[in-house]
Amino acid sequence: MRIYMQLPAGDQAAPRFYHLHLQEDLLEGWTLVREWGHQGAGGRVRRDHFDSREAAEQAMMRARDDQLRRGYRVVFIQGQEQP
Question: What does the angle CA 77 – CA 61 – CA 78 come to, to the nearest 5 degrees?
């Protein structure tokens, strides 16, 4: 599952991005990869390991909600199950 978000550009600054990505690891766990920074520049990366997919998805949704409260907008979602 992937979620890509952007924060609109300010007066002098480039737009910012926040990318969340879930991936299964080789030890039967899950990794939440967060990448963020200014569009067109190198960003920062953080990886958090979880024992279950459910725990990783919950952390991903909390991270998404935190960024939405900061003004980011969802641009792209991949792999989300339809209700």
Answer: 15
